[in-house]
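Hi all, posting the design record for the shared folder.

TITLE: backbone redesign
STEP: 1 of 1
STRUCTURE INPUT:
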């Protein structure tokens, strides 16, 4: 799905010629954000240690537009490399992170170092080099297992995993840097983002990528838990649009946390059935394994604040997003190894 024409017309004057930094820009959401920024005329610096991604997509962009995109192969924990990547940029999109709830349960210290300490270093680089705004990829996992739905930004956070705690710490850091140093910042709580190019060859793969991998290989998808847990599945184009709008918002932002989702939820069982139909394998019924530590039972975004502050509206429907994602996986092929997972 492309950005709506009216949003392109709104955003292009702001981003055309603007120097921006995308941390984690070789990753799934980061790569789509870089695509959009390039299409809007921005000059894009990317820093990524490639621990969760490859360079294939960015390499193609660099070959096409060598004067408008620059890549730094380094971690956000590397102060010197980070400052070099941030030199001269006006807007910082901080997406670099060690993702996945299950991975964080296995490696909590590493998760904290990259996600929390790394955010301090990004903020300090932005402050030292005079960036105007930092947009942070936060997470809906901050809400935890509170039963109230939909999730509203005024609800007290209740992280249930080291990943959620590290992302919530990032939100507090952005708000603190706004209050202490006057840096304009905003945290976007993404809800279950999916779409083309999402890695499917990992035990920590997102649920849609994991289901697509299984089904297109002729296998039944695996659900962790009873399948009655619900998710607000957000197509990557919507996440990118929300991120671009946050970077361009004319009002001064001071560390607000803002939901980026769709306002629609689906059970994981329903999602598996939708995926099976899209993969032309409706006969393949999901198998079940025990639920995993740190997983949240229900998730649904209230997107009222995003609408009011950013002018955000989700793009397209869940069904359209699934169709485009399955088509991409079918066209690009899938790794043969079977390691389903779910976030």
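Okay, here is what came back for every position:
SEQUENCE:
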């Amino acid at each position: 799905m492309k950005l709506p024409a009216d949003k392109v017309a709104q955003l292009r004057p702001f981003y055309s010629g603007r120097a921006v930094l995308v941390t984690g820009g070789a990753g799934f959401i980061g790569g789509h954000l870089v695509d959009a920024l390039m299409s809007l005329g921005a000059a894009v610096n990317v820093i990524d240690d490639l621990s969760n991604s490859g360079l294939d997509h960015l390499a193609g962009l660099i070959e096409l537009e060598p004067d408008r995109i620059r890549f730094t192969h380094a971690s956000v924990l590397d102060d010197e490399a980070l400052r070099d990547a941030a030199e001269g940029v006006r807007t910082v999109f901080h997406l670099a992170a060690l993702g996945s709830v299950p991975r964080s349960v296995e490696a909590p210290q590493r998760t904290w170092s990259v996600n929390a300490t790394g955010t301090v270093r990004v903020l300090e680089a932005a402050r030292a080099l005079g960036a105007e705004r930092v947009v942070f990829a936060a997470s809906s996992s901050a809400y935890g297992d509170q039963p109230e739905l939909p999730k509203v930004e005024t609800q007290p956070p209740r992280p249930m995993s080291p990943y959620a705690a590290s992302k919530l710490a990032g939100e507090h850091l952005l708000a603190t840097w706004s209050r202490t140093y006057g840096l304009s910042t905003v945290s976007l709580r993404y809800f279950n983002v999916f779409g083309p190019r999402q890695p499917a060859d990992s035990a920590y793969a997102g649920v849609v990528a994991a289901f697509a991998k299984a089904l297109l290989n002729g296998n039944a998808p695996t659900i962790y838990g009873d399948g009655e847990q619900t998710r607000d599945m957000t197509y990557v184009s919507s996440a990118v649009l929300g991120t671009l709008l946050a970077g361009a918002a004319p009002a001064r932002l001071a560390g607000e946390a803002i939901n980026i989702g769709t306002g629609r939820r689906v059970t994981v069982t329903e999602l598996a059935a939708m995926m099976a139909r899209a993969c032309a394998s409706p006969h393949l019924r999901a198998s079940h394994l025990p639920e995993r530590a740190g997983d949240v039972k229900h998730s649904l975004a209230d997107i009222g604040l995003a609408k009011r502050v950013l002018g955000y509206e989700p793009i397209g429907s869940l069904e359209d997003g699934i169709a485009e994602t399955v088509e991409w996986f079918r066209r690009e092929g899938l790794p043969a190894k079977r390691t389903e997972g779910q976030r």
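COMMENT: Confidence is low (pLDDT under 50) at residues 336-343.
Let me know if anyone wants the other runs.
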